[in-house]
Amino acid sequence: MYAIDHLNSAQEVSTFKSKPITFIVEEDESDLELKDAIKAVLEERMLEDESTYLSSDESINQLNKKYGL
Length: 69
Hints:
Blueprint: H1 36-46, H2 56-67
């Protein structure tokens, strides 16, 4: 007997209760791929005038001020 569970956390395990179980864990790599919308933004940014670039520190500072990150 086997079961396939898709869990957000190991705390959600309820299958087989107190019986011995074996888990095979695979990382979900789907969120590691850049979505088309993000790719389009990056392509657009690569075409911008370099003289208007912000440093990474300045970008983070502006994001912190605007969104409280």
